């Protein structure tokens, strides 16, 4: 596994996502203004990368609208030099061709790329709210009973090809051990070349469970497949966020936090902002491992990102 020479930690903040709905937390940013503000505050708190989804500005429903992505990116860029990483996972119920459109549109430094198809069950969250603010919320969560988050080999060839064509570096999202083998196949096919930046996504209902042993196992498999040719960041869904990201930091890897993955700051206490979670992981990284947040320059060098001036926003 590759790490930064300084030993610093790359903190990514995923500010809104497509998992949670507005009634689950009043602090979830949904409008382009709120999403941009949270990105800027997360960067000020120590995040080098902000992972961005967009939502309908009236209802907060996850969408893939390129104009909204552009609005968010432009607003962030006016105030901050942070690395903007739009999602190509988008709303998980939308087609891959629609989800990838953001890459030619924004020509971003980074984007996400999901390394396999999985069930993506959000419906267990239906039990946590009695009165929904919007009708789409329970319908959306209920619909995930039959959701396949589609990322076939054919899709991956197209997505990785588009990403490479635009000089964008993908964060390769692996939700289970098999996704690492999918990625290895993509490397063999020449659809992507090392060094790779991999992100383990653990604890999604449909992917690998978020245990300490599973993280060690996935890293062992990644080490076998990719040796020193990959860097690693870790996501823990829901209450697994801080246990898994601190384990990752102890293992020398990088960490992603943010309200996309977890709405809470600690047990029973909602995070009041994305920045609060970034502050918490920055404090933990220092106290448990003596690691400081990586600077933007060192992350850009380490991941081999294009010049931010070459983006289209
Ligand atoms: N929502 C996370 C579980 C993406 O946006 O492409 C994974 C993710 C994927 O952030
Ligand atoms: Zn995402």
Quote the average pLDDT: 98
Q: Helix segment count?
A: 11
Unreliable stretches (pLDDT < 50, length at least 5) are none
Helix and strand element order: EHEEEHEHHEEHEHEHEHEHEEEHH
The profile of the biggest β sheet is: 8 strands, parallel
- What amount of the residues lies in strands? 15-25%
Instruction: Let me know the CATH homologous superfamily.
Output: Aldolase class I
List the bound ligands: (5S)-5-amino-3-OXO-hexanoic acid, zinc ion
* DSSP, total strands: 14
**Domain count:** 1
What is the CATH topology descriptor?
Answer: TIM Barrel
User: What is the general shape?
Assistant: globular
Amount of helix: 25-40%
Largest sheet: spatial strand order: 5-2-1-12-11-10-9-6
Q: TL;DR?
A:
The protein has one domain: Alpha-Beta Barrel (TIM Barrel). Helix content is 38%, strand content 17%.
Provide a descriptive summary of the structure in words:
By secondary structure, this protein is of the alpha/beta class. The chain has a single domain, classed as Alpha-Beta Barrel (TIM Barrel), CATH 3.20.20. Helix content is 38%, strand content 17%. It has eleven helices and 14 strands. The strands form four sheets. It has an eight-stranded parallel sheet, with helices on both faces. The protein is globular and about 50 Å long. The relative contact order is 0.19. The mean pLDDT is 98. Bound molecules: (5S)-5-amino-3-OXO-hexanoic acid (KMH) and zinc ion (ZN). The site of zinc ion has 8 residues, from loops. The site of (5S)-5-amino-3-OXO-hexanoic acid has 13 residues, from strand 6.
């Amino acid at each position: 596994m590759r790490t930064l020479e300084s030993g610093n930690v790359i903190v990514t903040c995923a500010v809104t996502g497509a998992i949670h709905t507005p009634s689950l937390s009043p602090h979830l940013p949904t409008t382009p203004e709120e999403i941009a503000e949270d990105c800027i505050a997360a960067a000020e708190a120590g995040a080098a990368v902000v992972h961005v989804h967009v939502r309908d500005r009236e209802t907060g429903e996850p969408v893939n609208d390129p104009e909204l992505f552009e609005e968010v990116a432009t607003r962030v860029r006016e105030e901050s030099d942070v690395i903007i990483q739009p999602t190509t996972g988008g709303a998980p119920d939308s087609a891959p061709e629609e989800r990838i459109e953001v890459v030619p549109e924004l020509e971003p430094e980074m984007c996400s790329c999901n390394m396999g198809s999985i069930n993506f069950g959000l419906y267990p969250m239906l039990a946590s709210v009695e009165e929904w603010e919007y009708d789409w919320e329970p319908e959306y969560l209920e619909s995930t009973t039959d959701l396949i988050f589609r990322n076939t080999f054919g899709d991956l060839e197209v997505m990785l090809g588009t990403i490479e064509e635009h000089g964008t570096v993908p964060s390769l999202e692996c939700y289970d051990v098999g996704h690492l083998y999918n990625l290895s196949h993509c490397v063999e096919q020449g659809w992507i070349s090392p060094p790779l930046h991999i992100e383990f996504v653990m604890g999604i209902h449909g992917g690998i469970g978020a245990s300490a042993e599973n993280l060690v196992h996935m890293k062992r498999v990644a080490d076998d497949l990719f040796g020193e040719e990959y860097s690693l960041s870790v996501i823990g869904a829901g209450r697994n966020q801080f246990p898994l990201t601190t384990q990752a930091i102890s293992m020398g890897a990088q960490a992603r936090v943010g309200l996309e993955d977890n709405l809470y700051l600690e047990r029973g206490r909602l995070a009041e902002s994305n920045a609060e979670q970034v502050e918490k992981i920055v404090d933990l990284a220092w106290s448990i491992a003596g690691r400081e947040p990586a600077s933007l320059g060192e992350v850009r060098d380490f991941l081999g990102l294009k010049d931010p001036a070459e983006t289209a926003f």
